[in-house]
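Private note to self, pasted from the team thread so I don't lose it. Backbone tokens:
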């Protein structure tokens, strides 16, 4: 199993605090930190599906969740979804 992967972090638009529906990356910061800390290359990719976050490795979706379930900002250490995503990427091969 290769240690480092190219991870496509695909994310859809969502509405925050009654604002318009847009692609925002604030909730993805912790996830990005966790993955890059492991040495993975993270490539952000916008998708049209509302409220969705997907991690793709080697063309396969290995993790999926609602973007609103991720913690806002931070380094991802305390977010259980970030740990779940990290493990899914490690098991992708």
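Design output:
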């Amino acid at each position: 199993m290769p240690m480092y992967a190219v991870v496509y972090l695909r994310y859809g638009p969502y509405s925050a605090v009654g604002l318009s529906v847009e692609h925002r990356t604030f909730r993805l910061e912790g996830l990005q930190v966790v993955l890059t800390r492991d040495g993975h290359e993270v490539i952000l990719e916008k998708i049209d599906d509302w409220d969705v976050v997907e991690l793709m490795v080697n063309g396969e979706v290995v993790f999926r969740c609602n973007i609103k379930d991720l913690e806002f900002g931070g380094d991802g250490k305390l977010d259980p979804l970030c740990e779940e995503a990290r493990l899914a990427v490690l098991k992708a091969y």
